[in-house]
């Protein structure tokens, strides 16, 4: 395994962990509007290499389906199912990255990887639910959207490892087209809202970080690292998100948080260490 191949993944996870805190400053804004603006800003991070945005049509389709499709499905899930349960199902994507890796020809699945994913998912369930969640007897359509969103992001992540090589800067093109599709959804389904100065700042930071640089880092990570290790590490996202909220005064830590954090760290350690270690 190459040195520091996990570093881009860890940086992407850290950026995604800041999304919840930044999102508290944009709650007044419609979700597709937030996505459209932030992804447009994110695309500008690679505008200096716009010539690299030209990729094969099927590569472009997979890239846009991954970035826009995931967010579209997730927002639909939040609108048609309880947010807590939808978010829990959304966090199936790290587990799916681990489990589906062999189907994409990305190595064999070992018991160590299964244990890491299962322990990490248990911690994610605990930290997101705070120990309280109750799925309805009937299955709301929103749950299906959340599960499909998880499959979409995990499949996109794994597919980038098997596509013909394309420049990392091409992710900027994926972000731009996804931004335009999100803007179309905003125009069709949401009322227009003008952001104030604080909201513009939050949108700028979102575009630079969790809806911008994170996608470039994630592309680099998936191409250069072991997807099964990266999938196990990805459960750090809800843990770090909770810690950032607590540090910024927007959340609190309790016994459940520490228990969930311990499970996530154990799962990440099991999954990220090489076989010899």
UniProtKB/TrEMBL annotation:
TM spans (from-to) = 30-47, 59-78, 90-107, 114-133, 139-159, 171-189, 201-218, 230-250, 256-274
Q: Which residues are in the EamA domain?
A: 6-128, 141-270
Q: Does the keyword Transmembrane helix apply?
A: yes
**Protein's UniProt name:** Permease
Enumerate the UniProt keywords alphabetically: Membrane, Transmembrane, Transmembrane helix
Which SUPFAM superfamilies does the annotation name? Answer: Multidrug resistance efflux transporter EmrE
Spell out the Pfam families in the cross-references.
EamA
């Amino acid at each position: 395994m190459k040195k520091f191949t996990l570093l881009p993944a860890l940086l992407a996870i850290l950026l995604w962990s800041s999304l919840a805190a930044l999102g508290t400053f944009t709650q007044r804004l419609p979700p597709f509007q937030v996505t459209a603006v932030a992804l447009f800003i994110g695309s500008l991070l690679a505008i200096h290499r716009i010539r690299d945005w030209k990729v094969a049509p099927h590569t472009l389709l997979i890239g846009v389906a991954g970035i826009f499709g995931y967010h579209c499905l997730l927002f639909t899930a939040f609108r048609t199912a309880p947010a807590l349960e939808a978010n829990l199902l959304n966090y199936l994507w790290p587990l799916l990255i681990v489990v589906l890796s062999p189907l994409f020809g990305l190595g064999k699945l070992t018991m160590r990887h299964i244990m890491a994913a299962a322990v990490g998912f248990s911690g994610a369930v605990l930290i997101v639910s705070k120990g309280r969640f109750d799925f309805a007897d009937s299955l709301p359509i929103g749950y299906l959207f959340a599960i499909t969103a998880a499959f979409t992001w995990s499949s996109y992540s794994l597919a980038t490892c098997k596509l013909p090589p394309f420049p990392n800067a091409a992710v900027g093109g994926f972000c731009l087209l996804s931004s335009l599709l999100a803007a179309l959804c905003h125009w069709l389904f949401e009322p227009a809202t003008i952001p104030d100065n604080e909201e513009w700042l939050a949108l700028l930071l979102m575009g630079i970080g969790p809806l911008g640089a994170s996608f470039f880092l994630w592309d680099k990570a998936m191409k250069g690292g072991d997807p099964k290790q990266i999938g196990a590490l990805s459960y750090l996202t809800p843990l770090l998100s909770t810690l950032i909220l607590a540090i910024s005064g927007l959340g609190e830590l309790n016994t459940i948080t520490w228990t969930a954090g311990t499970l996530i760290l154990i799962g990440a350690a099991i999954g990220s260490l090489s076989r010899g270690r």
